[in-house]
Amino acid sequence: MNKNIAVINGDGIGPEVTKQSVKILDAVAARYGHTFQYTYCLMGADAIDKTGSPLPDETIEVCLSSDAILFGAIGHPKYDNDPTAKVRPEQGLLKLRKSLQLFANIRPVSTYSTLHHLSPLKSKNLEGVDMVIFRELTGGIYFGKKQLSEDGNTALDECTYTRAEIERVSRLAFAYAQGRRKHLTLVDKANVLETSRLWRKVVQDLSPEYPDVKVDFMFVDNASMQLMLNPKQFDVVLTENMFGDILSDEASIISGSLGMLPSASVGTGSALFEPIHGSYPQAAGKDIANPTGSILSAAMLLDHLGMAEEASQVRAGVEWTLAHGFVTKDIDPVNYYSTSTIGDLIRDYVEQKLPAGVD
Ligand code: IPM
Ligand code: MN
Which parts of the chain span the membrane according to its record (predicted)? Predict the structure, then answer.
């Protein structure tokens, strides 16, 4: 197959982790006879430095005409503590999500037995954890009206959801649950928020169309506790934009390293794939960051392109490195390998050229 892939390196460690994924996608293309055409484009602090805008129009055009987008990370500390900054790197990502109608963010949370010791949770609570968070990504408080009064003393962020917005992401989550353990948990704050009550209503209305899926409802404060107490109970978690932002970061520490987890943002057209970690500026350029989150995002990208076998080869490569102790500094601060070495090893695995002396 011929596919156009937009590549956005972004900020901090974005370029170096994305480079590993491209290397592995090239190996996939060679082994399975595909052609991947990459177009590099700008977003985030990098784009502000080079063009003045966090999301140049050209990036939107390239992404709109691509089959998939591979993205690294966004953010730079110089913007974080400046509440008056008018232009922020994150605006680029938010605008891209909206422009491409990427209304569902999918974050699988899995655990690896070799990493149990890194998790703040006890091993017995980690066995069998396998959940996927579906976060609504283009609505809610993130995209509502924002205002600061003239005297600068009153601020407003509005949260709005329409039935249509809730329905489209809920349908994806229901369908996804049907292919898994058939359990959907809607996380909301329906005891307080009108938008949450609409979410509950819409999910209840859709439920008869998916009779094999068991639906539960959970308040977000309780859900944040349950995620730590008994993460095994979750299969597919569906939630609105801001709750999903918070809960997916919370859930990410279950696996032991934020550096391991991938995500997909899907919508009506092209889809975007990115590790869930941030730009980690302290590690930028040092070749120490964990590229696994990006590489597993590339696997999700392959799945999205209908290349399931290719995706499972990449995942097997990741598992192979973990099983053989080929890990980055975040996983083993003493015996660790560089970002690019991990990328090379997974590439070799995909190319079926395992290093000599290691089976
Ligand atoms: C994420 C990030 C973004 C978000 C930021 C960078 C705007 O935290 O993808 O979860 O809040 O959605
Ligand atoms: Mn976030």
Answer: none
